[in-house]
Specification:
Elements lengths: L2 E14 L7 E5 L13 E8 L2 E10 L4 E5 L13 E10 L3
Antiparallel strand pairs: 1-2, 1-6, 2-5, 3-4, 3-6, 4-5
Length: 96
């Protein structure tokens, strides 16, 4: 088992993927993006958004060359696309 690395806190905007049923994501700035550790550019994390934490993953969006953190409606406290949130990410590293 690796060590836990922590990124943040940092502030960022929420963004809704276009289309019916589109998910809402927190955009993770490149300087705050954890390294991809799983296939498809995924990194399992414990995310904290505005003080609410849960287990999820950060995903790399190759089309936009950015990293995205999915933020479900029950974790957004009424916030939506365009609103600002404060994010902290924790993820396991293999470094010893």
């Amino acid at each position: 088992m690796g060590n836990v690395s922590r990124i943040g806190p940092f502030t960022t905007a929420l963004w809704r993927y276009p289309g019916k049923g589109g998910w809402t994501f927190a955009i993770v700035p490149k300087r705050n993006a954890p390294p991809a550790t799983r296939p498809w550019g995924r990194t399992p994390v414990v995310a904290m958004v505005d003080g609410v934490s849960w287990k999820t993953s950060v995903f790399r969006d190759s089309k936009s060359d950015r990293s995205l953190l999915p933020v479900p409606v029950n974790r957004r406290a009424g916030k939506d696309s365009g609103d600002t949130v404060t994010v902290t990410l924790e993820y396991e590293t293999d470094e010893g």
